[in-house]
Every structure is written in structure tokens, then in C-alpha cells.
Amino acid sequence: MFSQNAPKREGGGFGDASAAPEVVRRSRYPTRLSVYADPPDLEVSIEEFEAFALDRLQVLRSIEDAQLRAKGEEDIRKRVNEALEKHLPLHTNRSKLPPRQLVAERRKDHVSHFILRLAFSRTEELRGWFLRYECALLKHRFKEADIAEKQELLAAAKLKLEHLSPAARETRLGNASLFYPPQEQLFEVDFERVLDLVSHLQVVLQGGRAFVPQSEVATLLLHEFRQRLTRALAVCAKALPQMGEDERLLPVLQNLSSQTARSEYQSTGAAGAVSADNVDALSSGFPLCMQHLHTQLLKDHHLRHGGRMQFGLFLKGIGLGLQEALVYWRRAFGNMTDDQFQKGYAYNIRHNYGMEGKRADYTPYSCHRIIMSNPPGPGDHHGCPFRHFSTDRLRAALHRDRLTDAEVREIAELAGAGHYQVACTRHLEVKMQHRKAQQQQTSDTETHISSIASPNQFFDLCIGDCKSNGSKQSHDRDVQPVAPTAAASLPPAGLQKGPAYSYS
Fold it and tell me: Where is each DNA primase large subunit C-terminal domain found (predicted)?
């Protein structure tokens, strides 16, 4: 599907914009909108392959963020349009742009959809995320389209709609026809195709058939698109194992799917020099996952391997050096002898810092890795609280972090809906707002943070905010150790592309 040095085939040697409609209609992409029925049959360079996909991924993440954060439909519309214009523009045939650019935009849209379709077919969770926001993107574009574009898209979708003639309308519906405007076209379909309209009492039902007005035909389009894309993702999932031998393609696809949580975070070093002595004092700036691990370590004087890896690499990322890490963990594991510690744990700590074994310099876990891999079992404390805690346990943990009932309810609802990183981001925003209130600072706007992608990003933002909004005294007063509590009372930095496909 791609080559290292593929020519950029964007429609040929098109001339001025005045010839756009005719020239574009004779091109590979005559219409602006697509339901992606057929895969691209063209060459794409590996650079375009990744760049196109990352831009589309930015758009899908922007839609997710807008749906969760925007204040009303118009705000969502504005945010999504801004993301599309920046990353994935699609201009109409009536625009004054050269035909070459119009075709290039549509080529990028077409190719990027199929790249992400392949990348996000690996797991049920990834398929669900991609399906949700591709449908949202199509719905948005359909609403923004003019009448001619809508008709072109419906024709391309081949929905097989059964039009109801005026005579059949009177015969079939009788007085129920008054439910619809008299001049509006009606289509007769199986009610399963428009369950959303049925649940909102927006159509007349008769014998298992629904009568859908022209104004609601978008529901039929989205239902069909969802069904087809669901089947296509299942086919892609079965095909992925056959691609394991392609050393170029597979790493790119794995990189893309991992970036639902965005790429590897680079710490800002907000805490400065971190020693074994001040880890506890910094713990209220930890995200909930690291607060939990820290609390359990203080309580049990031990963590199992998954917890040690997650917490140890996090501490490394905030600035705890190797020698201080050895001191910290030796103190924390106070119930064992020096010999037991050296034989059982010191080697692994040095290994994480690249001083043993293959001497790899391991990086802190990203949110995506914590959420998607190695779920905690009995006796484990690693993982993401927003993903792996029960609702009651999550609420209790948030209450202990001094959040209000309304804030806890909002964050728990986000987590319950599967928006784990957005819930974590909202947790940080609330903590920052509380700090401003304690310091009697006023602001005309709410704290807004781009979606958290790494526990270390959470920490840097939290500690950085603390330092910038208060003196040394207020910082010391606000940042206190988290008291150990019993477990009984208690799982996407911007997108980046680079030459190496090795992301956490």
C-alpha cells in the first residue's frame, strides 16, 4: 500500500481554480464526503502513511474532547471545525482552491481512514473507540454539508431506501400521516435501523416497520455506516496476524493505536532534585494511580512486581536518581534484611536505570500502557484507578483527595463511561482549582488541561502549578504526605511522529 519513494499522485497537472468542478469530477475523488466503501488503490509513501494517520487521529481525539468538555452543540461544532481545518480540511468543489489541492485533501481523508481502520482493529476496545468517533466525524460532516453533498453521499452509501408514495402514505398510515409535515418525503425501513429515532418517539411504527422522514435520513446513514465499519474492523482484525512479517508496516500501526493515549511524555523536571527524603512530601502531587501505590507501599512495606515497576519508573521520571532510589526502596521495604533486599530487589532497581542486563534506559509507563496491559489481580496495586477500581472504591479515593460530592460524581461518571484519561485530567483540573481557591486567587475561566497521557505529565503540571501560584511556604503547606490507609477502605503531551516507532 505504500512505498519509500512513492510519487505524490494528487490528480495530475491541474490548472487554475476556475476549472475545479469539471476537473475534480473527472478525478479519483469527485465528491467531497465519503463512506469509505472501497480501500485506496494507490501508492503512499511511508512518510505520508504516518503523517496522514496522525492528523486524522488528532481530529478524532478533538471530537472526543469536544463532546466531553464543550458547552452545548454550537461549542462542539466550533471545536470540531477548528480541528478539521487544522488537520484534515475538506473544501467543496465551489471553493476557489486549485483542483490539485481539493483532490489531495480527499486523498488524505480517504487514505487516513483506512490506515486507522487497520491500526485500531487489534482489540475490541480500540475498535470501539475508533468506531465511535468515526461515526461522530461522519455525522458532523453530514450536518455541515449542503443539500447537493448530502444527496451525493446518500447515493454513494447505497442505503436501499423504500420511498413511500403519497398514495401509499395515505393507505399505510391513515391519520398517523399527520405526524409528519405533509410535503416531507417518507422512507419505510425496518425499525432496527432507526432505534435511536424509535426510542425518542420521532417516527411512526407499524408492523415492525418505521416511517422515516427525509429530515432524519442521517440516522439511516449512520446506522449503515456503523454496521459496515463494524464488519470491516472484524475483517481487519483477522488479517493483522498475516502482516507480522512486514517490518515497515506493523511498527507504524502499533504506534498509531498506542497513541490514543498520545506519545511518550518527556518530563519537565518540575520538582527539581528529588531525594529519598522528599518523595513523601511530593506525594499529594501524584496522580491517583501513584497515590494508591505510594499509600500501599507505606502500609504494607512491599509492592508486587507490577506495582514496583509502575511506581519505580514513575519516581525515576520525576527525578529520583539511582542511588536515591536504592535508599528510598530500602527504607520502604523495612521488614526485610539488607541481604534480602540486595538479592531480591536491588538488581531490578538498577536494571530499570539501565545499569544491569541489556542496560536499556527504561521510561515511565504511559497512561495507555497502564490502562491497556497487565490488569491487576488479587494482591496487586498497579493499574489505573479510573479503569480498574470499582465505582465505590474510586469515589472513596477521590473523597480522600478532598474533592466535593459533585466533583466526585462528575469524575466517576467519566470513568464509568470509559473516558479514563479524561477523568484523570478532570481530577487534576479540580486539584488546581482547589489550590487557587485556598490561595484566594480569582480567575475568569476554569482550569483547562489537554488530556493527560502520562502519570509524570500529571505530576509535572500539578507541581508546576503549585510552584507558580504560591510561595515556598504555601507549597510546603499544601504538599503533604498521603497518610497510609487500608486497601479495603479504599486503570491521550501532543501527538508526535518520529523516526523510531518505540513508544511506551
Answer: 284-459
pTM: 0.60
Q: Is 367 annotated as a binding residue?
A: yes
- Inter-residue contact 193 to 220 (CB < 8 Å): yes
Contact 312, 322 (CB under 8 A): no
**Do residue 252 and residue 310 come from a single domain?**
no
* pLDDT single digits (tens) 377-431: 999 999 999 999 999 999 999 999 999 999 999 999 999 998 899 999 999 999 9
Pairing mode, strands 2-3 and 44-45: parallel
In contact, 140 and 77? CB cutoff 8 Å = yes
Q: For the chain, what is the domain count?
A: 3
Is 135 marked within a binding site?
A: no
Report yes or no on 287 lying in a domain.
yes
Distances (CA, A) of 385 to 284, 390, 480: 16, 8, 21
Task: Decide if 122 is inside a domain.
Answer: yes
In a domain, 290, yes or no: yes
Contacts of 196 (CB under 8 A, 6+ apart): 219
Measured torsion, CA atoms of residues 385, 386, 388, 393, in degrees rounded to the nearest 10:
70
- Residue 163's SS3 state is strand
321 plus 210 within the same structural domain: no
pLDDT tens string 145-168: 999 999 899 889 988 877 777 787
Dump the DSSP string for 202-216: -SEEETTEEEEEGGG
Q: Is 236 annotated as belonging to a binding site?
A: no
Torsion angle, alpha carbons of 350, 356, 359, 360, to 10: -50
The response to whether 462 counts as a known ligand-binding position is: no
